[in-house]
Amino acid sequence: MRFIESPDGQELAALCLDYGYKLANSPSDLTRLQINFLMAALANRIERSALVRGEEPGVTKFVFAEDDDV
To answer: Has residue 32 been placed in a domain?
Structure first.
């Protein structure tokens, strides 16, 4: 399982993307792994949003996932 999909990864992604938590003092201080995590978290967020959003107006879509999938 990728870390970004784990509960800890989702929590860290929410802290960074939604609440402005900083992994370093400045962007130039980020490690390659931290940059990769942030990019993967953003891509995962966009992918999940696209899955949930309906293609047509007025369409509701339900996405079910097992605990192992999240």
So the answer is: yes
